[in-house]
Amino acid sequence: MAVSRPAFRLLAAVAVFLIAALAATLLLLRGGDGNGEDAGRGGGGEPTRSERQKPEDGGPPRRPVVVVKIDNVEEARPQTGLSAADIVYVEPVEGGLTRLAAVYASRLPEVAGPVRSARETDIALVRQFGRPVLVYSGGAPEIEPLLRRAPITLVTDKTRPGAYFRGNDRPIPHNLYVRPHRLPGQNRERAPEPVTESGAAPAGGTRTDTRTVDFRAARYRFTWSPGDGGWRVSFDGAPLRTREAGDVTAGTVVVQRVAVREGRQVRDSGGQLSPVAVTVGRGEATILRDGRAFDGTWSRPSGGEKTTYRTGDGRRIPVGEGPVWVLLTPR
User: Fold this and answer.
1) pLDDT score recorded for residue 56
2) Helix, strand, coil % (nearest 5) of the chain?
3) In this predicted model, what pLDDT tens digit does every residue of 9-30 receive, in sequence order?
4) What CATH class is the domain 206-330?
5) What's residue 169's pLDDT?
6) What is the mean pLDDT of residues 45-58?
7) Cα–Cα distance, 22 to 19 (Å, whole number)
8) Which string of DSSP letters, residue by residue, matches 174-237?
């Protein structure tokens, strides 16, 4: 039976519509981009497909670095997942207290936490790791616009609830944990670029068995342990422990003295402004490794560059094996 030209055009249009609808449905079922990851980049989301397919070195896309904000008040200890971190930053927060930012690149823990809120300090701090995944449990309304404008993939328990869970042994808010393997981009086989540069220590330094670092309402103590090949970490007079590995040790400790400015009118319940540690620029630093202390400087010329450490006469100080603890201490 012959089909008229108008009817043929109508049938063709219907066929095109059905094919497009079927393709969209299949793409949705496959996770948005064919890799089981979130598509789009609105609100600090995952990079677009074109960005993922064109890494600078021409190879397949790398896994993004993961940064988890971790609570360290008494109710949150012992924490989970710190032993797997490449870097643990100690940040000053309200009331002279501190909070941790654990950076994961070479390996991921099964679980990390307890997860707590982001701070304005995090925005510039994590920029040095490309486009990292920042894992947190919320932030002050004043800094949310800053977080969304930053080139960071933001993940909270509201935006990706399947990656989070609450433990039943602690009260809220100290019982929220994340499974890093369920975060955006972590199904890629290629590891991120290294976030630390290890190597032999330069000559010199001063023999050091212990170093205490004080914040206004928090005290950290690092004790050299030849048997561990690292520094045992104590916090407020007690050994810091993790659930997965027991006592926390650091291969290298960096006391990085930074300027601190007032934040975007973010105040705690006592009316104190949230401090912002300035991590772009340069300043003094003391690096502890191999049972010795090296006084020198830190430098980070721009937000997209990693922080480097040098002796007073300009020799680069690489880090040792094991986690690196960086304490952003007000100068």
Assistant:
1) 64
2) 20, 35, 45
3) 545 554 544 444 444 444 333 3
4) alpha beta
5) 86
6) 48
7) 5
8) TTEEE-GGGSTTTT-SBPPPPSS-B-PPPS--EE-SEEEEEETTEEEEEEEETTTTEEEEEETT
Whole-number Cα distances in Å, 285 to 26, 28, 199, 220, 310 = 53, 49, 18, 16, 9
Q: Which residues of 181-195 are buried (b: 16+ CB within 10 A; e: fewer)?
A: eebbbbeeeeebeeb
Which helix (H) or strand (E) element contains residue 15? helix 5-29
Segments in 54-173 forming alpha helices (H): 120-125, 144-149
pLDDT in tens, 181-201: 999 999 998 999 999 999 999
Kindly report the CATH class assigned to 49-182. Answer: alpha beta
The tokens describing 186, both together, are: 């972590």
Residues 6 or more apart from 48 whose CB is under 8 A from it? 39, 40, 41
Cα 318 to chain centroid distance, Å, stands at: 20
Q: What is the mean pLDDT of residues 195-210?
A: 95
Domain boundaries defined on the chain: 49-182, 206-330
